[in-house]
Amino acid sequence: MTEKEIRKYINRLNNGNACESIFTRQISKTVNVAKVWPQQPKMTDNIIVNFSSYRFFFIKNELNQYVGAVFDMYSDLHWYIVPQSRKQGHLTKALKESILPYLFNEERDRQRITIEKAAIGKKNYLNSKNVAEKAKLG
């Protein structure tokens, strides 16, 4: 999942264009859990439970605008915050107060995150490492 794809989902939610491909449910004031289908399912599709869908946590700011997302890959988490909303604590707060408690309440006994400098660059690596430390993930 690329940053560009995640940003596309955030933009669709903010623009009211999620149609029937993103279903959200609020779990806290600033976080919604969601099922996301990369392509809108058709009535003729043979869909079984989670077929072809992804689970995300979408993060909102105090103005109720979506500013980020955490992609739950079960064995790992991948996050993205829109550039103009970075370094404002949205991700750290969402992880600590909503997302991690939600995941562990689902009887998940372990959660891993991977932060690779070679994959995301030094600046994003340091920022993500800082978030992980503040959220007590490391």
Quickly describe the structure.
By secondary structure, the chain is of the alpha+beta class.
Task: Furnish the topology, listing elements before pairings.
Elements: H1 3-15, E1 22-28, E2 31-36, E3 54-60, E4 66-72, E5 77-81, H2 90-105, H3 117-134
Describe this protein's structure.
This is N-acetyltransferase domain-containing protein. With 138 residues, the chain is α+β, with helices and mostly antiparallel strands. The chain has one domain (3-134): Aminopeptidase, CATH 3.40.630. It has three helices and five strands; from the N terminus they run H-E-E-E-E-E-H-H. The chain has helices spanning 3-15, 90-105, 117-134; strands at 22-28, 31-36, 54-60, 66-72, 77-81. Strands 1-2-3-4-5 form a five-stranded antiparallel β-sheet. A hairpin with a 4-residue loop joins strand 4 and strand 5. The protein is globular and about 45 Å long.
Count of discrete alpha- or pi-helical segments spanning 4 or more residues: 3
Cα-based radius of gyration, to the nearest Å: 15 Å
**Mean of all residue-level pLDDT scores:** 89
Q: What characterizes the major β-sheet? A: 5 strands, antiparallel
Distance between the termini: 23 Å
CATH top level label = Alpha Beta
The residue fraction in helices comes out at: 25-40%
- CATH topology term: Aminopeptidase
